[in-house]
């Protein structure tokens, strides 16, 4: 596990609703630089939606996503709800009070709550729309500081070469976006690749959008990426339908790596592949992680793969994070009933063990009583968090002791 404590990605109270469907509901976690964070749970629990919300494929409903200390996504529904709830609450209070001075005081309190939340909505709108522009300004400044002193000192052909480089880098800096430092490897290697584009065009698309115009630079970069993921240069002129599932997923990996990202969201990158190919792709991601110092959010439902590949694991159920712990700790001390149910479902290639294996069934209504004592996400051990109420917290603490 990485010892680096620098937080690269921080997700706070993330909510992603589609109408009345709460796909992700109040999820919070952070990912440290250089680590692999595994996100597990059954199909439909909100893992993929969490990843897509982080990379801004969806506009989040509420909560915040911070990348490198900058808020790249901000939702507004929580502020709108706070205003509506305050209006309702204070209307009842003001109606019940007879004293005019008290009414004035309560109205002033309500006005302050409304003003504060409207200010937060304004900040959220600005951060959502302008985070990339602010980052672009920083990149332009960095390019200026790097090239201007060099150009002033140079002369002749060297100066002309530096000026051309400066112009090219400046153009790219103006078009760059902070979110491009987060790349995604999609679950379906067939649907995620445009069938009408060659492999060269697919892998190079990000560079072209970023503003790179030198065809030779683009071509060499594409060849380098192909060889890095275990393909050959000749594959660049082919189309996606000419490749196997494993090869297509390697093309998807190359497309994400070419942008030199700091964070990769791997959305079940091996679930659609044969078992033997799964191992190859996982080993490839491991090698790339070591080579480039990547940070990875690894979304999967295969717990054996997640345990092998991840430093920390978050368990999701029905849109909520129910448990979060280092990989070894989670497998050693699973506390939440759903986590224990999930771990009990892992098959092993041992017929004697399989005959004796007892499957734990998770029944939320039977396992929890949240009618009065409501749950919250609590730390039961350094780095080990569980969704529980007061009674469950005491129970988990006694288990750990």
Could you characterize what this model shows?
- The chain contains 14 helices and 12 strands.
- The protein is of the alpha/beta class and 401 residues long.
- It has a domain at 1-68 and 262-271 and 278-375: P-loop containing nucleotide triphosphate hydrolases (Rossmann fold, 3-Layer(aba) Sandwich), CATH 3.40.50.
- The strands form 2 sheets. The chain has an 8-stranded mixed β-sheet with strand order 6-7-8-3-9-10-12-11, with helices on both faces. A 4-stranded antiparallel β-sheet has the order 2-1-4-5.
- Helix 2 runs antiparallel to helix 3, helix 3 packs antiparallel against helix 4 (156-175) and helix 6 packs across helix 7 (245-257).
- It is flat and about 85 Å long.
- The two termini are 25 Å apart.
- The model has no long low-confidence stretch (mean pLDDT 89).
Spatial order of the strands forming the largest sheet: 6-7-8-3-9-10-12-11
Question: What is the percentage of strand-forming residues?
Answer: 15-25%
What is the makeup of the main sheet?
A: 8 strands, mixed
Please identify the top-level CATH class of the domain at 1-68 and 262-271 and 278-375: Alpha Beta
Radius of gyration: 25 Å
**pLDDT under 50 segments (min length 5)?**
none
Predict the CATH topology of the domain at 1-68 and 262-271 and 278-375.
Answer: Rossmann fold
**CATH architectural category of the domain at 1-68 and 262-271 and 278-375:** 3-Layer(aba) Sandwich
The count of DSSP E runs of length 2 or more, i.e. the number of strands, is 12
Order of H and E elements: EEEHEEHHHEHHHEHEHEEHHHHEEH
Overall body shape: flat
Distance from N terminus to C terminus (CA atoms, Å) equals: 25 Å
Counting helices, strands and paired strands, the structural category is alpha/beta
Query: DSSP helix count?
Result: 14
CATH H-level superfamily of the domain at 1-68 and 262-271 and 278-375: P-loop containing nucleotide triphosphate hydrolases
